[in-house]
Design brief:
Largest sheet: 8 strands, mixed
Helix content: 25-40%
Radius of gyration: 25 Å
Number of helices: 21
Mean pLDDT: 93
Bound molecules: 5'-O-[(S)-ethoxy(hydroxy)phosphoryl]adenosine
Oligomer: single chain
Distance between the termini: 44 Å
CATH topology of the largest domain: Rossmann fold
Number of strands: 31
Low-confidence stretches: 1-6
């Protein structure tokens, strides 16, 4: 990597940020980066020394095999050490650092009238009580607990309570359908499920307990019910939105269901942490897989702690008096790493927001930044594009002068959105950290450091400490200098996933088989002449809608469950706000009629099977799909039809080229 000399417009770190930053300039980044690769042992020992270890590591800091031709893939960090991540993110601050009364979270509800402040002391006490409740329900070290909660403090309490007693949490985003929840409960074989009665998302009331009961019923139908107890937070009721017109019917099974508040009432405030091996599992988080079945990405205790803590500290240049806000949902990895573990490990004060950006008005984000004097703000390009639509006026009503650093995650950020974020939100003075990473990577892997890295809009810039990227061509050859190809990593860092839960083979096949010796991200990238990395998007059959990855296979499987559908193929089409959206081709069974009602029915079906975030934007009738002679659907052509790109290139491998003309003539213009 070289110091940039290119023609691209560069944005340099502001002087005041550089004065006392953790990584104050490019040379300091380069020196630490070099050390992290040349002497990882010393580098990670130093990072580990800030944390509490019940027992120190006995072997080397990092051991691994990344080459499938040499045996099983494994990564081990600090083998032999014993610790507890909950102790490190809570007790350590309360006991050793006097952060007793420091605010851990400002919880801000869906309605601006609902808000609560939670200090580190209060957080520790709630977590311990919840840990005791879980224990009373029979949860032991190694057991799985599924969590299906909205963005409320109990979500943080529950995940940390699991970590405290050594249970493995499996959080399922509370926008997923009962089918998706059921599938994830069955895979994890959880014994306890934690949920809430209901929640408002914007204007819409969602009956979570009803969805949970449907999911449990489906588990029972598959003879796979592992859940013994369901702990239910009285959330909708306590927010007093439950007036006569919007009261929820909360279905109740008194053998299984327990109200959270009743269980917590007499639970003790003390709970000795379970001392865990460094490599014990911490959590499972499901992410879409290209076969359609979600993968349970497994992260382990010590490596994840160190990696999320260090990335948070450096990438957001954490200061003791910061108020940090990440707008993600904890149901995704961004929330796990950068709402819960990373910020708490640093003793940070965060905003925990239940609502959506445009409720009750389009200035809600800016209002919250003003209200809490937010200094570091982390959101997704899709949210930025949504808010851009309303222009600058909603921003001008609020004081955003507290902001120092802005961040984005989830998908490549387009130049217009970057400029708007920088000018309208950051008022031209805040660096934007465009953080590239994945559920699998645990934390940021390509990212600017705000005081050190000159920015190029749209580039995730350089690797974080300990991360060694490479760009490969189709044949697996490493490309030097300026290049475009597959983004891979040559060695692990502490926060990398350890396996796919109960499916090591799938882990190896998905990430390590294609190019032996490398972890394959599934993303394409370009490295420019200054050594900057630019993510060019997924190269597998995955689609990124509003920053959420979904597999085309999963959506196709849902569509073909409809009795009228014979076959389907799903591709992406660019979307102004969501980045990409779903464009579906369906071939109907003989005698079936394509109609508006059918389109609506199919949209509803996909919503119900997977969740509202996967609602297709376009559904086109496809009398036939373009296939190769061997019967493989040519998605490239479907993508071009969806995007109205006329130059289709070589169609000679198609069994019947006429199919394409028909599809073109019937393409959907508007959703
Ligand atoms: C995409 C989210 C470009 C990428 C943390 C990756 C990005 C997938 C960026 C992982 C970024 C994430 N620039 N693309 N800054 N961040 N992606 O597992 O395709 O939900 O592989 O993790 O999102 O999505 P996941």
């Amino acid at each position: 990597m070289v110091v940039p000399e290119s023609q691209d417009k560069m944005y340099y770190p502001p002087d005041d940020l550089q004065r006392d930053a953790h990584v104050p300039d490019l040379n300091s980044y380069l020196a630490q980066y070099r050390k992290s690769l040349e002497n990882p042992e010393a580098f990670w020992k130093e990072v580990a020394s800030e944390f509490f270890w019940k027992k120190p590591a006995t072997g080397p800091m990092l051991q691994y095999n990344f080459d499938v031709t040499k045996g099983n893939i494994y990564v081990k960090f600090m083998e032999g050490a014993k610790t507890n991540i909950c102790y490190n993110v809570l007790d350590r601050h309360v006991r050793e650092k006097d952060l007793y009364e420091k605010v851990a979270y400002y919880w801000e509800g869906n309605s601006p009238d609902h808000h609560v402040t939670i200090t580190y002391r209060q957080l520790l006490s709630q977590v311990c009580r919840c840990a005791n409740v879980l224990k009373r329900m029979g949860v032991k070290k190694g057991d799985r607990v599924s969590i299906y909660l909205p963005m409320i403090p109990e979500l943080v309490y529950t995940m940390l309570a699991c970590a405290r007693i050594g249970a493995v949490h499996s959080i399922v985003f509370a926008g997923f359908s009962s089918d998706s929840l059921c599938e994830r409960i069955i895979d994890a074989q959880s014994s306890v499920l934690v949920t809430a009665d209901g929640v408002y998302r914007g204007e819409k009331l969602i009956n979570l307990k009803l969805i949970v009961d449907e999911a449990l019923e489906k588990c029972r139908e598959k003879a796979s019910s592992s859940i013994n107890k369901c702990l239910v937070v009285r959330h909708h009721l306590r927010t007093k939105s439950g007036t006569a017109s919007n009261k929820l019917q909360t279905p109740w099974d008194s053998d299984c269901d327990v109200w959270w508040d009743e269980a917590m009432k007499d639970a003790p405030e003390e709970c000795e942490p379970e001392w865990m091996d460094a490599e014990d599992p911490l959590f499972i988080l499901y992410t879409s897989g290209s076969t359609g079945k979600p993968k349970g990405v497994l992260h382990s205790v010590a490596g994840y702690l160190l990696y999320t803590a260090l990335t948070f500290k450096c990438v957001f240049d954490h200061r003791h008096d910061d108020v940090y806000w990440c707008t993600a949902d904890i149901g995704w990895i961004t929330g796990h790493s950068y709402i819960t573990y990373g910020p708490l490990a640093n003793g940070a004060t965060s905003v925990l927001f239940e609502g959506i950006p445009i409720h009750p008005h389009v200035g809600r984000f800016w209002e919250i930044i003003q209200k809490y004097r937010v200094t570091k703000f982390y959101t997704a390009p899709t949210a930025i594009r949504l808010l851009m639509k309303y222009g600058r006026e909603p921003l001008q009503k609020y004081d955003l002068s507290s902001l120092r650093i802005l961040g984005t995650v989830g998908e490549p950020i387009n130049p217009e959105a970057w400029q708007w974020y920088h000018e309208a939100v950051g008022q031209g003075r805040c660096p934007i950290v465009d953080t590239f990473w994945q559920t699998e990577t645990g934390g940021h892997v390509l990212t600017p450091l705000p005081a050190a890295t000159p920015l190029k809009p749209g580039s995730a810039t350089f690797p974080f400490f300990g991360v060694e990227p490479s760009v490969l061509n189709e044949h697996g050859e490493e490309l030097e200098g300026e290049a475009e190809g597959y983004l891979v990593f040559r060695r692990p860092w502490p926060g990398l996933m350890r396996t796919v839960y109960r499916d090591q083979e799938r882990f190896e096949n998905t990430y390590f088989k294609k190019f032996p010796g490398f972890y394959v991200t599934g993303d394409g990238c370009r490295r420019d002449k200054d050594g900057y990395y630019w993510i060019t998007g997924r190269i597998d059959d995955m689609i990124n809608v509003s920053g959420h990855l979904m597999s085309t296979a999963e959506v196709e499987a849902a569509l073909t469950q409809h009795p009228a559908v014979a076959e389907s193929a799903v591709v992406s089409r660019p979307h102004k706000v969501k980045g990409e959206c779903l464009y579906c081709f369906v071939t109907l069974k003989d005698g079936m009629e394509f109609s508006h009602a059918l389109v609506q029915g199919l949209k509803t079906l996909v919503r119900e099977k997977i969740g509202p975030i996967t609602t297709p934007d376009f559904i086109q009738n496809a009398p036939a799909l373009p296939k190769t002679r061997s019967g493989k659907i040519m998605r490239r052509i479907l993508r071009q039809i969806a995007r109205n790109e006329n130059d289709l290139g070589d169609l000679s491998t198609l069994a019947d080229p006429k199919v394409v003309e028909v599809l073109f003539s019937q393409r959907c213009e508007a959703a």
